[in-house]
Design goal:
Bound molecules: adenosine-5'-triphosphate, adenosine-5'-diphosphate, iron/sulfur cluster, magnesium ion
Number of domains of chain B: 2
Order of helices and strands of chain C: HHHHHHHHHHHHH
CATH topology of the largest domain in chain B: Rossmann fold
Largest sheet of chain C: none
CATH topology of chain C: MetI-like fold
Shape of chain B: globular
Radius of gyration of chain C: 22 Å
CATH class of the largest domain in chain B: Alpha Beta
CATH architecture of the largest domain in chain B: 3-Layer(aba) Sandwich
Structural class of chain B: alpha/beta
Number of helices of chain B: 11
CATH superfamily of the largest domain in chain B: P-loop containing nucleotide triphosphate hydrolases
CATH class of chain C: Mainly Alpha
Chains: A alpha/beta (279), B alpha/beta (341), C mainly alpha (285)
Strand order of the largest sheet of chain B: 6-7-8-3-9-10-12-11
Strand content of chain B: 25-35%
Shape of chain C: flat
CATH superfamily of chain C: MetI-like
Order of helices and strands of chain B: HEEEHEEHEHHHEHEHEEHHHEE
Number of strands of chain C: 0
Number of strands of chain B: 12
Number of helices of chain C: 13
Oligomer: heterotrimer
Distance between the termini of chain B: 26 Å
Helix content of chain C: over 70%
């Protein structure tokens, strides 16, 4: 097996507080996992807020340097990327999707500017026709076309469409890995499903691996191959999605699992009434 | 199962505390000659009874917040009420929100409280929490400083907060605590009516249940009515007695929670319920096609017709009225047919 | 550009008033190029004449026509004020945006310079420059010095706007879309910084003109070149108020107030026009 991404005992500490009450916050502790280059998968990181999910994602994207441990992407240490050239090569292989589709595009810039810029920089295209073709091809993958997007601003499209354009943009350089940090937490149930369905398709048709970060256990169960559960920087449980989410063994994962209300009035209202009685 | 049904029907006979009739509220803007009118609330009528929790669901930018803001009488330009009325009944005294402005002002906090969307972030970051209580509630309660303080402390204790939080700054508290605090603020005067916009959306799964139980508990103890908004259907399932579904500024379906979940009458509601993911179920869900309607230029006829799987020609030209059906109301030319589909 | 002007004139009453005022004063100041007499000449006319059909705004105790003195004075003062404003805006934008966006060492370095300059007292520095330069002292040198003193607070303001923009998701997105730093600063951030520039420009202009008046009233500038401050200087020298020559002082002050009013109205209405929120509303967001 060749590793696409390999995290070995990764730690990240932050210094917090003022001059007097300086202390260290361990945002991420001893995280290790490996994604296989030959077997694209949806790898999900779940956990409550503050559990270190975003910090992990930022380290994978090279936006943050680990305090100790190494992150290797296709054998190369991400923290050792120094020159702009190396950085661009890395960004062409690893691309992010952001949390809020309405925030991910500057409202005063047309959406195609992001697409064209990506095509020009990472594919080295100069010719307008070639740029258009590359952009259109990526948009086709997400069920859109350049004609629908050209010259439009973010407020003219729905959250689901924007998130798909964000995915298309990330696909332009032909990445091996997409890191999606809570890509559905700001959108409603119906849009949620259209976005996670898209991730499935990317894995199956383009062979892109996806790191899906979320606190929504229901969609995690719906699309993931493997899941890790983080709690205060630690990975408390890891494994196949059906096992970890369907039948959690660690105490914290069980708590998290039982905190998910089912979309069923009879069961859900019974849970709340039970809680009320307990107080 | 039986208990749930009983519980819900118990609250039904009381007379309405809130009557909204033919309410239209539009954002009317004029920037350098570009006139725009966003019809965020378009002809909404509903009633809410004493002791009832009414949930409003709908996709993003369907006008949920605008509706609830208008009901709370908390609108600012460019949002304006164009038509219709909002009337409360506080202890037999009728209060028309948009005809009796001064009386409305007096009723704020005392009879009625409004928790805005993202309100856990509206606490002033440079002032201690106790000042917020003082600013909002002190003058409505007619108590001495000492009595007021004691009342606030016992209230906080009851909702599971250490009274010491009064001495802290908002940033020292977690999101869950801040949300509890805003609920505490909204309920300290024991109002008869509570209006809340997305009270749990920003919260973590782990605290969400606690906050929901808190809301339900406060409501039961004080016997007040609640109208709240969220796009998270599981929250509706957990605490709402009745649900109203909003699509493109209009109420398209309304009914007891259990019925809406089990026998949705409107195609949009049916889609909403069917698309909910559940743990233990990886069957593929299909997302709604098309794009959300533009409220500045909404589709003709039934506003759902460009995305509706059941649409017929009539739907394009004629708007279906919200009519009683089974235990609730629904606005669709082919109401109920979706059951078979 | 033309369409923007037309829209603003048609739909914004503040802009229209501001535009007319500023244009009128500009034309009046421009007229000094066709003045019947050189603006530095003295005792060409009978002194101390009150406003009349012949001398609309009267004459000064130095035998100058107040009308033509004002025309030149407004021109020179505006030239100075606008030079200071434009130069200092350029410094403020460059330092503020680079400091805010790049952060780290750059930020520390630029902000140290910035804060040092905030701590420096303006008038003594200008006097120092005046005494060092002596005969080479001309208004462009003074303008440059003032510009160097006048950008610091605004650079901090712009830095804080850029700092908050840097943490917005769309900026990180732009980086991963391969945009270069200048592309991000100019295309993505400048539209949000523009309102700050316009807003501070007005304050800066008032400050610059105030500075010019102060220096002139103290006599630390080329007093023979007519400026608003220079006129007040000479009026004081001749005790114009006590002597009842009110028109020597009143007309220049009225002109300056009208000019400020016009510029202020222009600034707020243009600001509203370029404000991202209003722009978005016009686009239909
Ligand atoms: N201040 C405003 N000016 C103009 N239009 C507005 C304003 N606020 C909201 N709108 C528009 O009104 C419509 C309804 O918005 P509203 O905030 O009520 O949606 P919502 O259903 O609460 O959405 P969400 O679930 O995202 O909170 C949208 O089209 C929105 O763009
Ligand atoms: N730049 C930073 N400086 C200090 N602390 C940080 C910083 N970024 C994150 N943290 C802290 O690290 C912890 C993990 O945060 P994060 O990775 O954002 O969690 P999640 O994404 O799971 O919500 C939190 O306690 C957070 O406050
Ligand atoms: S009225 Fe027609 S378009 Fe509207 S929901 Fe019913 S079937 Fe669909
Ligand atoms: Mg996060
Ligand atoms: Mg809302």
């Amino acid at each position: 097996m060749t590793a696409l991404l390999e995290l070995q005992d990764v730690n990240k500490d932050y210094r917090v507080g003022g001059f007097l009450d300086r202390s260290t916050l361990h945002a991420v502790k001893h995280v290790s996992f490996t994604l296989d280059a030959e077997k694209p998968e949806i790898f999900t990181v779940v956990g409550e807020s503050g559990s270190g999910k975003t910090t992990t994602a930022r380290m994978i994207l090279g936006n943050e340097v680990p305090t100790s441990g190494t992150l290797r992407f296709m054998g190369k240490d991400i923290a050792q990327i120094r020159t702009r050239q190396e950085r661009l090569e890395f960004m062409a292989r690893v691309q992010p999707i952001f949390q809020n589709p309405f925030e991910a595009f500057n409202p005063l810039t047309t959406l195609d500017y992001y697409l064209f810029s990506t095509a020009k920089r990472f594919l080295g295209l100069k010719d307008k026709v070639a740029v258009d073709a590359a952009t259109d091809k990526a948009l086709q993958h997400v069920g859109l076309s350049l004609a629908e997007v050209r010259g439009r601003y973010s407020h003219e499209l729905s959250g689901g469409q924007l998130q798909r354009i964000a995915v298309a943009r990330a696909l332009i350089p032909g990445p091996k890995l997409i890191v999606a940090d809570e890509p559905v937490s700001m959108v409603d149930a119906s849009l949620r499903m259209s976005i996670v369905n898209l991730f499935r398709e990317l894995r199956d048709t383009l062979g892109v691996s996806i790191i899906y970060i979320t606190h929504d256990l229901s969609t995690a169960y719906y699309i993931s191959d493997r899941v890790i559960i983080m709690h205060k920087g630690d990975v408390v449980e890891a494994g196949r999605a059906e096992e970890v989410l369907g039948n959690p063994s660690h105490e914290y994962s069980r708590a998290l699992r039982s905190a998910v209300l089912p979309p069923d009035p009879v069961v859900a209202s019974a849970i709340i009434r039970e809680k009320l009685r307990a107080v | 199962m039986l208990a749930a049904v009983e519980n819900k029907s118990a609250s039904v006979e009381a007379k309405p505390v809130l009557r909204v009739e033919g309410l239209k509220a539009y954002y009317q803007m004029n920037y350098f000659g570009v006139r725009r009118e966003v019809r965020a609330v378009d002809d909404v009528s509903l009633t809410i009874k004493r002791n009832e929790i009414y949930g409003i669901a709908g996709e993003s930018s369907s006008g949920k917040s605008s509706l609830i803001k208008t009901i709370a009488g908390a609108i600012t330009p460019p949002l304006r009420v164009v038509e219709g009325s909002v009337k409360f009944d506080f202890g037999g005294k009728e209060l028309d929100v948009y005809a009796q402005r001064p009386a409305m002002k007096a009723a704020r906090w005392k009879h009625l409280s409004y928790v805005m969307q993202g309100s856990m972030n509206v606490l002033n970051p440079v002032r201690k929490v106790k000042h917020a209580f003082h600013d909002f509630a002190f003058k409505h309660m007619g108590l001495s400083e000492g009595e007021f303080r004691a009342r606030v402390e016992s209230h906080l204790q009851r909702i599971g907060l250490d009274p010491r939080v009064l001495e802290s700054y908002p940033h020292q508290l977690s999101g869950g605590m801040r949300q509890r605090l805003t609920i505490g603020l909204a309920t300290v005067c024991e109002p008869e009516f509570i209006i809340a916009d997305e009270p749990t959306t920003a919260l973590d799964v782990l605290v969400q249940q606690d906050v929901l139980a808190l809301i339900k508990g406060v409501q039961q103890r004080m016997g007040s009515s609640i109208i709240f908004v969220t796009h998270d259907m599981t929250v509706h399932a957990a605490i709402a007695d009745r649900i109203g579904i909003v699509y493109a500024g209009r109420l398209v379906e309304e009914g007891p929670t259990l019925d809406v979940f089990q026998r949705p009458q409107h195609p949009y509601t049916a889609h909403l319920i069917a698309s909910l993911p559940r743990i233990g179920d990886t069957r593929k869900r299909v997302a709604l096609g098309g794009k959300p309607p533009n409220l500045a230029d909404p589709p003709s006829g039934c506003r759902f017709h460009p995305r509706c799987p059941l649409a017929v020609d009539k739907c394009k030209s004629e708007n279906p009225a919200l009519l009683p059906r089974n235990s609730g109301r629904v606005a669709c030319w082919r109401a109920g047919e979706v059951e078979a589909a | 550009m033309f369409k923007i002007l037309r829209d603003l004139l048609r739909y914004n009453i503040e802009f229209t008033i501001g535009f007319i005022l500023t244009l009128a004063i500009f034309l009046f100041a421009l007229a000094h190029f066709w003045a019947p007499m050189p603006d530095t000449a003295i005792y060409l006319l009978p002194p101390d004449m009150p406003p009349s059909a012949e001398y609309w705004f009267g004459t000064t105790s130095r035998g100058q026509d107040v009308l033509w003195q004002m025309s030149s004075a407004i021109w020179n003062t505006m030239l100075f004020g606008l030079s200071v404003t434009i130069l200092s805006r350029l410094f403020a934008v460059a330092v503020g945006m680079i400091s805010g966006y790049l952060g780290g060492k750059w930020d520390e370095f630029l902000m140290t310079i910035n804060d040092t300059m905030i701590a420096l007292p303006n008038i003594p520095i200008l006097l120092l420059v005046y005494f060092v330069m002596r005969d080479q002292m001309s208004w462009p040198v003074l303008a440059l010095t003032a510009a160097l003193l006048g950008w610091n607070y605004d650079a901090r303001l712009i830095r804080s706007v850029t700092l908050s923009l840097r943490n917005r998701e769309f900026t990180r997105h732009a980086v991963f879309a391969g945009m270069s730093v200048p592309q991000i600063l100019v295309r993505q951030h400048l539209p949000y910084v523009m309102p700050v520039i316009f807003f501070t420009a007005m304050n800066n202009l008032i400050w610059a003109i105030g500075l010019e008046v102060t220096l002139s009233v103290l006599g630390f500038s080329d007093i023979n070149r007519p400026t608003i401050g220079g006129m007040i200087y000479w009026a004081n020298q001749h005790q114009a108020i006590i002597a009842g020559i009110w028109w020597w002082i009143a007309f220049p002050i009225i002109a300056v107030v009208l000019l400020f009013l016009g510029l202020f109205l222009l600034a707020i209405s243009v600001n509203e026009y370029i404000d991202p929120r209003s722009r978005l509303s016009r686009m239909g967001a």
